[in-house]
Amino acid sequence: MPLPRRLPRRLLPQALRQVPSRGRPQRLAADAGLLVAAVAFAVPLVWLVLSSLDAEATLRVRLPKSPTVDNFSAVLTDEITFTPMLNSLLICGGATLLTVVCAALAAYPLSRFRSRFSRPYLLTILFSTCLPITAIMVPVYGLFVQVNLIDTRYGTALFLAAAQLPFAIWLMKNFMDGVPRVLEEAAWTDGASWSQTLLRVILPLMGPGLAVVAIYTFIMMWGNFFVPFMLLLSPEQLPASVSIFNFFGNYGAIAFGELAAFSILYSTPVVLLYILISRRLGGGFALGGAVKG
Amino acid sequence: MTGAVDSTAPRAGTPRARTPHAPTPHTPKAHRARTRLLRWSPLAPATVLLLLFLAGPIGYCVYIAFTDTQLTGQESASFVGLANFRHAFGDPAFLNAVVLTLVFTVISSILGQNTLGLALAGLMRRASRPVRSLTGAMVITAWVLPEIVAGFLLYTFFERRGTLNALLGWLHLPAQNWLFTLPILAVSFANVWRGTAFSMLIYSAALSEIPQEITESAQVDGAGGLRRLWHITLPMIRRSIGTNLMLNTLQTLSVFGLIWAMTRGGPGNRSQTLPVFMYDQAFLKSLIGYGTAVALLLLLVGAVFSVVYLRLMREEV
Q1: Alpha-carbon distance B292 to B294, whole Å?
Q2: Which residues of chain A have pLDDT under 70?
Q3: Which CATH superfamily is domain A78-254+268-292 in?
Q4: Cα A128 versus chain centre, distance
Q5: SS3 at position B79
Q6: In CATH, what is the architecture of B92-314?
Q7: Domain-by-domain residue ranges, chain A?
Q8: B83 touches A at CB < 8 Å
Q9: What is the ipTM of this complex?
Q10: Cβ separation of A98 and B49 shorter than 8 Å?
Q11: Among A34, A49, A235, B205, whose Cα sits 20 to 30 Å from the Cα of A118?
Q12: How does DSSP classify residue B145?
């Protein structure tokens, strides 16, 4: 199913309208069931918020005696927050840029031209979206040692980009399929080259789709622990996902309040970015549609 | 090492060279070939990146898995045939990892994420709006949080002095040291907490596509809730179920950070799934060759699931 640009937004209210007006008891039962689930999912999140404001935070959920932002000011140092976050931004930002550019370029011929090999190529792409990347990290480490890419931020970014690329191409192609060809054909007759057509006609028309691909890619990279954990060694190069582990991972007399505060700082960007795309494209509809093809 | 990459590199060019059926009838042959090459040239950057950083390592993985490479002293590496695999299938620690991976996958992906996701999506269609938004927000937040943060949060939840035992004490139930007595169950629940949103979103989309008339006519015919679920809802979303199960399983097979943050595979090796076992053998025990053989097995299992997934998709692509 190709995903027209505005489909999800139109789909959402319709889906909500379709909800039948069943009996009151049934709705109450559904509400109760969902509330139980919501509470169960919320407990660890509540711990996160309360502990970050508690100077004497423990492992349990409890109300802070006197709420304070001391935990935040304690972790807002170069060593704990700023350097790792900057590294994360450089690595994930650079890798996202590379992924989106490569995916947009690759999606164009795959979406527009037919040939004997475009279908096998797409199936290979789809196949590699599913491969467990975790499994190839040992050989990747070995390769990176031999070509001196180990412990470099750009090497890590290159690998992250390659790992996210199959899904990005797939998603991008589905969005591009939704852009009508008519305008493009007009550009062709006016003598535009393929690069001009892609840059001036197609990409502006699929702006929200492009944003979804970029943001989804960035979220996946920002949260990735194993890749930088394997490929980066020196502390000053580590992104937040690994530095948080090094600072707080050695359990014992650790400051849970500071751990919670840093977790919030580290998670906020991806949560905000997710809200951005979910508002724009009706939650998981874009992703669900893309996954279903 | 570069051999693995170089041998695959020329393949990048060949598909572009033969791209027939270009609808440009009145041009000379050479010009047509050039147009085709130009048309497919945007594919080059992505293809190069994928060949270098995905196909290369996979090829290298296949090679290393048949050697006795160790972390120290690459010179001593020699071809050992299937020795690593023979070693694996006689290694109780490997078999332990296989069993734990199966338990982890069945509990967290098939029973947990999949069933809970479907239940939540179903309930959401009947619930009132504020409850629906609240639950959606909680479940999705758990999904969006970085893996390592989720690991820490669930660690504090299951820890001996953590929230779960506090809740149990409050209900006058016996406390447990969950991460010690049932570590695999704890990490499985952690994965359910983290991964259910994906299933929920897929099933929400699938359920909203079931035509209302079908459900209503079944209702008029007197079919009860369970029978409607079994005979109408499930058959109508079976493709989504297949897709979701495949993707969940593949994602669960490669979970590392969550388990590493919560238990590091311990205590002992009682929550050591295959990715953790692979890391442990390759880096902590310096047996790169053996660790890679385990990785190759994991990759093969993943590949089998991917092929099944492709077959499911093939009907729709």
Answers
A1: 5
A2: 1-23, 249-253, 279-293
A3: MetI-like (1.10.3720.10)
A4: 18
A5: strand
A6: Orthogonal Bundle (1.10)
A7: 78-254+268-292
A8: no
A9: 0.82
A10: yes
A11: B205
A12: S
